[in-house]
Amino acid sequence: MTTQLVWLITGCSSGFGQEFVSQILARGDLVIATSRNVNKIRHLEQPGVSLQQLDVTDSQESLNETISKAISIHGRVDVLVNNAGYIVVGSWEDLRYEDFLAQFETNVFGVIKVTRAVLPHLRKHQSSTLVFISSRSGWYGDPFCGAYAGSKFALEGIVESLRWEVEPFGIRTLLIDPGRFRTPFLFSGGNLTRAESRVADYRQAYQRFLDAIAREDGNQPGDVRKGVGVIVDLVRKEGLAKDKEVPFRVPLGTDCYETIEEECEKTLSTLRHWESVIKATDY
Fold first, then answer.
1. Which UniProt keywords apply (predicted)?
2. Which residues are tagged catalytic?
3. What pLDDT does residue 216 have?
4. Does the residue 277 lie in any domain?
5. Has residue 24 been placed in a domain?
6. Per-residue pLDDT, 189
7. Fewer CB within 10 Å of terminal CB in the chain, N or C?
8. How many domains are contained in the chain?
9. In a domain, 194, yes or no
């Protein structure tokens, strides 16, 4: 693929979003980089990069206007990367309803609203790509990560459904499941919100969990540069994706591979050992 693409990316202030900008420019493409606070991405501004304020928790009407402005910059958008997100941790009993709601507002409903705003343009364009950044947590719910894992499990389902709806219009859909990558997603980047432990029964286990992620913060096994490089290859169908059929769902990272493999094997084992019970419920 040699055509110059226009990419619209949410959540560009750090991590994957920031790396996307660098690598997309290196491929000769154009980027519309967005963030809730545009001042946090001023350092990304250069030829080929346009900046746009975008908060995925805004209303659908507001986001429609924001996306229209973004599209007007180059007259089109070829690739949408839904990258913005954060994580809230805590036990079910310690997390408030509002904490669950806020997690879904950004990680699920924000993705829905941004994508809905872009879809009418992409349907007319007839050749475009939607990229959704999910997570290993869309396959496995770690303790004290119920709100985050729930949002990613939800994302997996709605994106898989969307895939079949938009495929007839020439729109490709990529669902990316990164494992633990070395981004400022945890304590160091302010993208983690933690509930205070008010229930004594959970306190010791919760503190061990917080200590573990604090130790890993900045030491995650995944290389962001390599991960983003794979995604850009998949979108542009070059490099490792040249002359290959690109799958819909792509895990990234050894830890994610191992988790998904284990989950699939456990599911197959359940089906094999409980087949008679499972099928016995039919008329």
1. NADP, Oxidoreductase
2. 148
3. 81
4. no
5. yes
6. 53
7. C
8. 1
9. yes
